Amino acid sequence: QVQLVESGGGSVQPGGSLRLTCEISGSIDGFTFMGWYRQAPGKQRDVVAAISSYGVIVRANPVTDRVSISRDEATNTVSLQLNELKTDDTAVYYCNVRSSQWTYWGQGIQVTVSS
Fold first, then answer.
1. Residue 41 CA: distances (Å) to CA of 53, 62, 88, 92
2. Which of 20, 31, 41, 43 lies closest to 106 in space, CA to CA?
3. In whole angstroms, what is the distance from residue 55 CA to residue 111 CA?
4. Which pLDDT score, from 0 to 100, does residue 30 have?
């Protein structure tokens, strides 16, 4: 059974930074994308950034210059660095790992940006 556990969320003032980490347990083989999505109240869940097994990175347009993503195969973790946070970044952030045949989600972690 694959489980994803997010950490690092919380409250921060505009302009601040947060680092989210997702620890993935269980057996994951083959080519995968590990990524982060977010969902604000009343909105759909959208991708923030994702990174493939080969290191290819995709980022959503609203956050392209303010986020970085990395994955560590040895520890099976994927991290998201959020910089210059804005109030619009307030959302529940979800970790995701997927292949061509399956997808797994974390339970989500709250990020609140307010003054």
1. 31, 17, 11, 9
2. 20
3. 26
4. 83
- b/e per residue, 35-66, with b = 16+ CB within 10 A? bbbbeeeeeeeebbbbbeeeeeeebeeebeee
Give the residues across from 11 on adjacent strands.
Answer: 112
Contacts 24+ apart (CB under 8 A), 73-77: 75/23, 76/23, 76/24, 76/25, 76/28, 77/21, 77/22, 77/23, 77/24
Q: For 21-62, what is each residue's pLDDT tens digit?
A: 999 999 888 889 999 999 999 999 999 999 999 988 888 877
Give the tokens for residue 77: 């973790």
